[in-house]
């Protein structure tokens, strides 16, 4: 058998194998694209607003015949990277209220803005769980809940007496009633950093202060929301 005949036979056997490899690669690329959400539609018309219980977002379900098992919710504040707030709502509901807040007290501060995005979670027979690309972002701003006013502090012995005027509530400017106040002490004294105060009170005797100059920050609490801080500096004697 000539060398040309051998080459032809070898090549003819390799062609189906090469085609099989190429087909497999193409299939893997398709699966990867689906996993990244490039071939399944994302939710549309994402919108958001502040409600009495938190920050609410809503959207329209994707126009798809595939089965949707839930939605992934992403959130960020400022220029930070998005983080996954909810990995899966495990529901086909097209709205979600964020009640997680921020910080140790899990609240939202007046005036801060948060960006949200949503991804649809599909289940397909060919790829299993597949997630769409995220929606365009929507920004939801915490309303300017009113802060206490006329905050004063007087050293009356064994700590300062703080007094203030409660915010004047109107449903046009606030979405929830006052549920209390939180007082923060800077620097902390005797290990104490804050104190919770009832909503009916407009004065508070902070009896744990060490001597020296201290800043006191008072915020009004409106359910999950809190106002900007009213601040006063008090010099505490021995």
Note the run of SSEs as H and E.
HEEEEEEEEEEEEEEEEE
CATH topology of the largest domain: Immunoglobulin-like
The helix/strand class is mainly beta
Low-pLDDT ranges: 29-37
Strand content: 35-45%
- Helicity, as a percent range: 10-25%
Oligomer description: single chain
Termini Cα gap: 110 Å
Count of individual beta strands = 17
Number of domains: 3
Under CATH at level 1, the class of the largest domain stands as Mainly Beta
Largest sheet: 6 strands, mixed
Query: pLDDT average, as an integer?
Result: 83
In angstroms, what is the radius of gyration?
Answer: 30 Å
Can you name the CATH architecture of the largest domain?
Sandwich
The DSSP helix count reads: 1
